[in-house]
């Protein structure tokens, strides 16, 4: 296992592939850990340097007391990249990971060469929604949310045809810490990166699953429209976590984006 210390505590990460290749950094969603990228990473060529990590309060990383802010989460990622002596990375951000990626690009532009924003937006939800989510988690635990999350995370076909996998992902969500989950809900509640998105000047690909119940395609496309030159693509029969449902499709989109912009 690989770990380093940031202001948010110990961060668990995986650094694999060609150390001289294009660094591709993956920031995952609320309630998940770095395993959501396993199948997508396996579909990518060895010439890339693949860096995955568990944000604070998730996976094997430390869980400092919340609430958190998107800027703090971005600082954790910046600390990891500084630790690894990585700059000019392609950052792939899923859900809250997409806001972390946008914040990192705005605040530490030397670290980010391009962005892939997957099922995310510059602003997600409103204060009322996130406060209700925080109250529910603190009162009843994450498992009280789990079935609703699975509805939003995965397509109808996945839920019907792959029940064993669905059970595993539900288990992953339920085993995250309530403090870390609530802390990141607060970060999402308070984050509004729409002005920052308008100022971004780098290659951006925005991707959405057509059955995403958490960040619907129209919301993802609205964020793409804020960023000059950004392109939006839709993945069919996918929910909020297309890298799990369609890892090869996501990998192909990433490789096409890399080639289009001569990133490696």
Quick overview of this protein structure:
With 264 residues, the protein is an alpha/beta fold.
Mean pLDDT: 97
| Known CATH architecture | 3-Layer(aba) Sandwich
Using the coordinates shown, work out and report the CATH topology. Answer: Rossmann fold
Uncertain stretches of 5 or more adjacent residues:
none
Question: What topology emerges from the helices and strands here?
Answer:
Layout: E1 2-6, E2 9-17, E3 23-27, H1 38-42, E4 49-53, H2 70-83, E5 89-94, H3 96-107, E6 112-118, H4 127-140, H5 143-153, H6 156-161, H7 163-174, H8 178-190, H9 194-199, E7 204-209, H10 217-226, E8 231-235, H11 242-245, H12 247-260
Parallel strand pairs: 3-4, 3-5, 5-6, 6-7, 7-8
Antiparallel strand pairs: 1-2, 2-4
Any overview of this molecule?
By secondary structure, this protein is α/β, with parallel strands linked by helices. It has one domain (2-260): Alpha/Beta hydrolase fold, catalytic domain (Rossmann fold). 46% of the residues lie in helices and 18% in strands. The chain is built from 12 helices and 8 strands. The chain has helices at 38-42, 70-83, 96-107, 127-140, 143-153, 156-161, 163-174, 178-190, 194-199, 217-226, 242-245, 247-260, and strands spanning 2-6, 9-17, 23-27, 49-53, 89-94, 112-118, 204-209, 231-235. It has an 8-stranded mixed sheet, sandwiched between helices. Helix 3 (96-107) links the parallel strand 5 and strand 6 (112-118). Helix 2 packs across helix 3, helix 4 runs antiparallel to helix 8 and helix 5 packs across helix 7 (163-174). The longest helix has 14 residues, at 70-83. The protein is globular and about 50 Å long. The two termini are 27 Å apart.
